[in-house]
Amino acid sequence: xxxxxxxxxxxxxxxxxPPKNCLEANLLSGYGIIGDRHEMDEKNPISISDxxxxxxxxxxxxxxxxxxxxSANLILDSLPQELFNIGYTFYIGDAIFEVxxxxxxxYKNECELFKTGDQCxxxxxxxxxKSLTDSKICTGDYLKGI
Length: 146
What we know:
- By secondary structure, the chain is mainly beta.
- The chain has one domain (3-132): PK beta-barrel domain-like (M1 Pyruvate Kinase, Domain 3), CATH 2.40.33.20.
- It has helices at residues 51-59, 112-115, and strands at residues 3-11, 20-22, 24-27, 46-50, 74-76, 89-92, 95-102, 127-131, 135-138, 142-145.
- A hairpin with a 2-residue loop joins β6 (89-92) and β7.
- The longest helix is centred in the middle third of the chain and has 9 residues, at 51-59.
């Protein structure tokens, strides 16, 4: 049984602006976080990363092209392997989520990190989900498989 904790919730209201760190967030069934700029995005409404990937990104000396483009909405203690299956459903608190895609697209020809031969965790260390419930999540809530 998987179980990991939600450490941080970030809401991005406008492209290029810093996130609003929140203790809780309201979710819209079929979509994302209410108030986030990707709230109604049907493809990838909520991005999830883990502490390992965030630390890896912060420690890199050579910056990948997407380092400034990508920021997670939800940051977990860890991303259990079970989450890397499209269609997988799970709880965070009382909210139900479904994995809709895995990893960020790599722009190999433009990325300095790719040119060094180093593997980018953004291509396989993050997931995108949608909420299946109108509900609320809070930092400190636990993720549990269904």
